[in-house]
Amino acid sequence: MRTVIGDDAVSVVLAGGIDGVAAVELIGELLAIIDGYSAPVVLDLGQVLYLDSHGLRALLVAGRQAAVVGSSLTIIRASPAARRVLEISGTGPLFALDPLTP
Questions:
Q1: CB of 15 closer than 8 Å to CB of 52
Q2: Cα(71)–Cα(77) distance, integer angstroms
Q3: Residue 78 needs a FRET pair 20 to 30 A away by CA distance; which of 7, 18, 46, 72 works?
Q4: Which domain holds residue 23?
Q5: What domain count does the chain have?
Q6: What angle do CA 30, 32, 34 make, to 5 degrees?
Q7: For the sheet containing 73-76, what is the strand order?
Q8: Is 68 exposed, middle or buried (0-12, 13-18, 19+ CB in 10 A)?
Q9: Which of these, 73, 69, 93, 71, lies nearest to 83 by C-alpha position?
């Protein structure tokens, strides 16, 4: 995970697989970012090779926390593997995932 703190957003680039083990760490890191900065969070999933239900749950928990604190969590550049999970689960719109572009 690589985090870039900008003037108007916090960008987080995820890579590799997001499974049960990685999801536990990811939830903690995303919640710390969301609670620590008032800026919207943008997740770049372009390098994610695998996303299972645990990883999806981590994204949903982070998205819910962002809404609670009045922020947002947006997904950009979802890899085909990540996009498939988001589309099949019907959760893509929760993250403002554009259905037309990867």
A1: no
A2: 20
A3: 7
A4: 2-76
A5: 1
A6: 70
A7: 2-5, 10-18, 41-51, 73-76
A8: exposed
A9: 93
Q: Does 59 reside within a domain?
A: yes
**Residue 51, amino acid:** L
CATH number (domain holding residue 36): 3.30.750.24
pLDDT, averaged in runs of 10, over the chain (102 residues): 93 96 96 94 96 97 96 95 95 81 49
Residue type, 53: S
* Nearest C-alpha neighbor of 2 from the set 27, 28, 21, 29: 29
Q: Which residues contact 102 (CB under 8 A, 6 or more apart)?
A: 46, 77, 78, 79, 80, 83
Return left, alpha or beta for 77; rule: phi > 0 is left, psi -120 to 50 is alpha, else beta. Answer: left
pTM: 0.91
